[in-house]
Q: What sequence folds into this?
């Protein structure tokens, strides 16, 4: 699975404004709706927030992967967002999250969803990758950083 196959420039926002977990998720869900017009954003938001109530998707190193399974999309859908200020996302290390990967997969699909989470976790462990994302001024910079990691140039 190539992670880049699921990412298009319109699926990326390098300047999220949200000041808390709910606002960030709302922005990311809105981005998903804008880049995927057939997506049911109300159902996606409800599913992601329900998943967050079960346990935070805030990891370590300033990264969060809010995700859920929901039939509001026809296939795995991913959007990426960056918060310059960072927000409290109840992360494992207690630090604010700056990098967000929101994923929604249909309930009938499990393989790609699990593979995408594994890919993200592998990529974010690379310090230079995280730094490139945080310095990104636009979607092209994000795509370039992902391509570089996927091609093994890191």
A:
């Amino acid at each position: 699975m190539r992670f880049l196959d699921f990412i298009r420039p319109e699926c990326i926002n390098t300047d999220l404004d949200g000041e808390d977990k709910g606002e960030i998720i709302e922005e990311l869900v809105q981005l998903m709706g804008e880049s995927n017009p057939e997506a049911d954003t109300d159902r996606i938001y409800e599913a992601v927030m329900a998943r967050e109530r079960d346990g935070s998707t805030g990891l370590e190193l300033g990264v969060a992967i809010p995700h859920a399974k929901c039939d509001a999309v026809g296939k795995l859908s991913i959007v990426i967002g960056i918060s310059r200020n960072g927000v409290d996302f109840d992360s494992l290390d207690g630090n604010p999250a700056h990098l967000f990967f929101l994923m929604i997969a249909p309930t009938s699909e499990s393989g790609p969803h699990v593979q995408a989470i594994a890919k993200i976790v592998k990529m974010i462990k690379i310090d230079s990758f995280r730094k490139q994302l945080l310095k990104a001024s636009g979607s092209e910079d994000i795509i370039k950083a992902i391509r570089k990691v996927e091609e093994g140039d890191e």
Observations:
- Residues 21-35 form the longest helix (15 residues).
- The chain has one domain: 11-150.
- The domain at 11-150 is CATH 3.40.930.10 (Mannitol-specific EII; Chain A).
